[in-house]
Write a structure and sequence with these properties.
Blueprint (H helix, E strand, L loop, with lengths): L2 E5 L4 H12 L3 E6 L14 E5 L5 H8 L4 E5 L8 H12 L5 E7 L12 H17 L4 H12 L4 E7 L2 E2 L8 E3 L12 E2 H11 L11 E3 L4 H15 L1
Parallel strand pairs: 1-2, 1-4, 2-3, 4-5, 5-6, 7-9
Antiparallel strand pairs: 8-10
Helix pairs in contact: 1-6, 2-3, 3-5
This protein binds NADP nicotinamide-adenine-dinucleotide phosphate.
NADP nicotinamide-adenine-dinucleotide phosphate binds next to helix 1 and strand 5.
Amino acid sequence: MTRICIIGISGKLGQYMTQHALDRGFDVVGVCRPESVAKLDRFKGRIRLYPGRTDDASVVAQAVAGCDGVLTVLAPWGFTNYASGTARAVLHSAEPGARLIFSCGWHISKDGKDRYSLRQRFIYALFTFLGWATRMADISDQVRATKMIFGSDTDWTVVRGSDLKEGESEGLPVWAPYVGDPVLASNRTRRTDFALFMVHALTDDRLIHEAPAIVSRQSASARTHAMEEAVSVGE
Ligand SMILES: NC(=O)c1ccc[n+]([C@@H]2O[C@H](COP(=O)([O-])OP(=O)(O)OC[C@H]3O[C@@H](n4cnc5c(N)ncnc54)[C@H](OP(=O)(O)O)[C@@H]3O)[C@@H](O)[C@H]2O)c1
């Protein structure tokens, strides 16, 4: 892996991914809205930017050309099919064989086998309603975007973040294939570690065609799980 592209590079997640990718020695290019270019001033001279909306197919095509990996922030903003337009642009123009990593939340389900608590269902319904009522976010478009990804024959991974908090890294998060797994119960991850997992996924082929739901490795549920594993190995 040498050159990677970050689609939605100027957001919080995008900026963390940029730093992790540079730390790994990748050549980084990115796409962000023109009004957000200044947010990336601290990376000046170290990354190449293609200003444009992330659902602009021609801008995305220029940015992903020659990239071995693409990290895409799927954001459900507005009612213009922004997330599905972004996913479509990346799937159509990425290089054949490129690793494609997409971000979203636990509410996305690959095959309906996730087990959600009543509280999680309520929060999802509330956010969907509030997004619709204010016309600020179309959660169902993020669902459409990921359906398109799950049906694609590219080397995709859809990383599903838990509740995000700022703060120092707690290490590479642990993951489970399904929400409802006890290891995920703490439902918290540092945003920098979500980014770390996205960058890690570029070179972990075990994650191809997976939708890992992640949680901080320092969270209570992950630590309990690690202790149980150690005990069962020692038995
Ligand atoms: N927030 C959470 O607790 C949480 C939890 C689980 C998963 N996630 C997932 O994590 C990812 C990043 O989320 P985040 O909360 O950390 O946000 P973020 O990284 O700040 O990203 C938001 C993205 O949306 C863009 N954006 C913001 N307002 C927009 C608008 N009106 N129109 C078009 N684009 C707009 C931003 O671009 P600009 O820089 O141009 O504004 C940025 O690229 C998403 O995939 C989300 O589903 C978030």
